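Moderator note: this is an archived Q&A kept for reference. The question asked for a predicted structure of one protein chain; the sequence and the answer are reproduced below.
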Amino acid sequence: MIRREELIKIGQFNKPHGVRGELSFTFTDDVFDRGESPYIVCCIDNIYVPFFIEEYRFKTGTTALIKLADVESDEAARDFTNLEVFYPKAYYVEDDEDATPDDYFIGFTINDITYGTLGEVTAIDDSTINVLFVVTTPDERELLIPIQEAFVRAIDEEGRIIHMDLPEGLLDM
């Protein structure tokens, strides 16, 4: 069974293209072109399902047309409209040595020097110029914490903990 923490979100299917089952795909990472995985993954009814790529071609710098195995018509392709697309971390090939995939830190625990354990990173908000960790606290509150190198003291990848030193008052906002 494929688990969410084994995956990296790389984009979203848009709508069918043509009548042969091709899909328009907006991607944030072209790892499917650089990596070795023969499949991508979509979440369908809360189950992560692999789909093998038959072929693809780039349309622009952020969109591609992709043909999945066993998706043979525009009607079958419609079922994929607006589905998020994931790539297995085991096959991930970085484009840049210093790059980190956007959702790599999902599932990590945030631990602050002053406040202690704050909660788990459940999403990355990159909708503005200031990218934020979306952290869900044990009592189900949501915190937005800026992803700033100056705030990070250490990252324990094995233990999946980000040790931070947040400025006073940041959590009161």
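Archived answer notes: Residues 123 and 134 are 5 Å apart (CA to CA).
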